[in-house]
Amino acid sequence: MIEYVARSGPPEALNCPAFICDTCRKQVFGQGIVTWSTTIGHDGEPSPHRQTPIYVAHKGRCGRALEVWLEANYPRADGWIDLWDDLADFTRQLAHNLANAFADDLEGRYHQHRLVHPKETP
Ligand SMILES: [Zn+2]
Predict the structure, then answer these.
(1) How many CB atoms lie within 10 A of CB 35?
(2) From ligand 1's centre to the CA of 31, what distance in Å?
(3) What confidence tens digit (pLDDT) does each residue in 8-55 have?
(4) Model confidence, pTM
(5) How many angstroms separate the alpha carbon of residue 58 from the centre of ligand 1?
(6) Which of 14, 37, 57, 117 could cysteine-pair with 66, CB 3.0–4.6 Å?
(7) Percent of the chain whose predicted confidence (pLDDT) is above 70
(8) Is residue 92 part of a domain?
(9) Are 1 and 20 in contact, with CB atoms under 8 Å apart?
């Protein structure tokens, strides 16, 4: 998850936003992934679908453990599929969307989704 991490000085005490691995609880920097599960609308057509919160993990062992947790909490039998993206690509896209509204994208159609929180945390 993205979390604020308290830091003592110098030069001063700060709260630093950071990506924290949902598997090992250490900071993710450099090589990392974001992962989530979703149910996709039929035939790629815009339709309401379900989506989980976005989780963060180190690439490799932590990412695989998080994938197992996602599948246990959001089973394929209920229509869930898990997806992932490189943390660097995710961050670039997020920064772009901070300055560009979906409503101004005349070529795209954005799907509605309903956020589904897990019954337990990873
Ligand atoms: Zn980790």
Answers:
(1) 20
(2) 11
(3) 988 888 999 999 999 999 999 989 999 999 987 666 565 668 999 999
(4) 0.86
(5) 4
(6) 57
(7) 93
(8) yes
(9) yes
Q: Which two tokens stand for residue 57?
A: 């993990």
Cα gap 90→48, rounded to integer Å: 23
Residue 17 resides in a domain? no
Distance 70 CA to ligand 1 centre (A): 15
Residues 6+ apart with CB under 8 A from 73: 118, 119, 120
Dist. CA 116 → ligand 1 center (Å): 23
Task: For residue 25, give the amino acid letter.
Answer: R
Number of domains in the chain: 1
Per-residue tokens: 96? 């772009």
Residues of the domain holding 63: 30-103+110-115
63 CA to centre of ligand 1 in angstroms: 7
Contacts for 80 with CB less than 8 Å, ≥ 6 apart? 37, 38, 39, 50, 70, 71, 74
Distance 54 CA to ligand 1 centre (A): 15
